[in-house]
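Operator note (shift B, R.M.): manual run for Polysaccharide biosynthesis/export family protein requested after the automated queue skipped it. Running by hand, logging everything below so the morning shift can see what happened. Input copied straight from the record, untouched. If output looks odd, do not overwrite the archive copy; leave it for review.
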Amino acid sequence: MRRFLLFGLVALLMSSCNTSKEIIYLQDVRLESPEEIKAAETITIEPKDMLSIVVSSSQPDAARIFNLPIMATQASNGDLMYDSYLNGYVVDGDGYIDFPVVGKIKASGLNRWQLQDRIMETLRDKKLLDDPVVTVDFMNFKVSILGEVTAPGTYSIKSDKVSVLEAIAMARDLTIYGKRDEVYVIREEGGQRHSYKLDLRSSDIFDSPAYYLKQNDVIYVQPNKVRAGQSTINQNTVKSVSMWVSIASLLTSIGVLVANIVKM
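Run finished. Output pasted below as returned.
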């Protein structure tokens, strides 16, 4: 009988350990063992991207015609607020932007630094500016995060380099019901749709082409069986009740087993 009770206690504890293995990230990372960091793929400009392009020069008046007008918005207190990022260049379906005075400039397929160089070269070749300085930034670099995360939604990215882990952090992490081994990144580029499956429990995600995100990527976190089986009528109530009932049941079972072992 004592052996049976001990076996039951061990089984309960092992069940708890298995549950923790399902939710812990990067379980196989080797501590204090440096690894080479994989360089993020350079983000290239694609049709429908919106770009902020600012031209400056030692001749401000001559450079002004190449900059889109800064738009003003009305603040709640009646003051005018100026935001240069309300205007931008949209890359058309053929991959071109319509640049003031110059006309069409091919943008798709280039990264933002290459486009900067192309615009500066064009302005010099056409003798429009002697010493142009051009800055190009993405205005619509965003990713959408769906499924079992705390705060699903669409998030704007202010950097050219963002990882899937950083994006999940923006969405305030996966819920306890999210499957760490079934996180999907859906990407559209070059007229094709690619889907990648990531296992956040493994350090192999660092080698995935989807570890670093691109503009308009969609991240989807698959729900586990518990979540999938819940009623959609009153999810919040079912979630809180089932969680506390499970915890209470586990603690009660362990307490009873320990008490019986002590008595014997």
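Quick read of the result: The domain at 50-137 is CATH 3.30.1950.10 (wza like fold). The first helix runs from residue 2 to 23.
Leaving this for review. - R.M.
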